[in-house]
Amino acid sequence: MLNSNSSTLTQHKHNKFIPDDGVSQGFRTKRKPFIWVVRPPVGFDQKGEFRSEWLPEGFEGRISDSKQGLLVRKWAPQLEILQHKSTAAFLSHCGWNSVMEGLSQGVPIIGWPLAAEQPYNAKMMVDEMGVCVELARGVESGVEAEEVRKVVELVTEEGGKGGEMKRKAVEIGERMKAAMREEGGRKGSSLKAMDDFVSAIVSTAAERRRRSNGVATG
Q1: Which ranges does the record mark as transmembrane (predicted)?
Q2: Which residues pair with 69 in a beta bridge?
Q3: Number of domains into which the chain is organized
């Protein structure tokens, strides 16, 4: 199963942002079940009513007729979906929260970065970590169904590059979990770093109070 949780996997047309139909067509061509979460575009009330005009004509019907896709409006439990053993890949804009959630569950990422730090995150995952394939880049990018099919096939194959990506993603996920684990009185690196951070803040505050009291009494 593929998970796509983003309102940003879009095309820019006529000053409106709509989901890229090439993506869903590529999913359907590959015959991979998928969940696609769509939210109101940037600039609109994220808690407001979702408008059908933001979707390509016939988009929902094509997904429904395929019997392999689920379109979810506004919100879905992303982490729970990523935790499911059937989730083979995560199509993401590569924001850091999504990256952390995906990799913590050992799920390879298909990247479509847009802005801010997202392209840098995608590049790091592709070049240094080996857990991501970049499908497209930028708000105005569009993709053809055949491109999507090839990327999905590559990422979800059990051997070759897909298998290697999965192995690396699982390894990174285990390291992330170990960093948050406490066993036998020993804390993982993230827990220890947080303890050190809090201790530094408390120590600095105490030192400032001491100096302040010294000045006042002097």
Answers
A1: none
A2: 34
A3: 2
Examine the domain organization and report whether 172 and 193 are in the same domain.
Answer: no
Q: What is the pTM of this model?
A: 0.79
- Secondary structure of the chain as H, E, C letters: CEEEECCCCEEEECCEEEECHHHHHHHHHHCCCEEEEECCCCCCCCCCCCCHHHCCCCHHHHHHHHCCEEEEECCCCHHHHHHCCCCCEEEECCCHHHHHHHHHCCCCEEECCCCCCHHHHHHHHHHHHCCEEECCCCCCCCCCHHHHHHHHHHHHCCCHHHHHHHHHHHHHHHHHHHHCCEECCEECHHHHHHHHHHHHHHHHHHHHHHHHHHHHHC
- Regarding whether 154 and 92 lie in a shared domain, the answer is yes
38 — pLDDT class (breaks 50, 70, 90): confident
How confident is the model at residue 184, as a pLDDT?
A: 85
The confidence band for 146, taking pLDDT boundaries of 50, 70 and 90, is confident
Q: How confident is the model at residue 57 (pLDDT cuts 50, 70, 90)?
A: confident
193 and 125 in a common domain: no
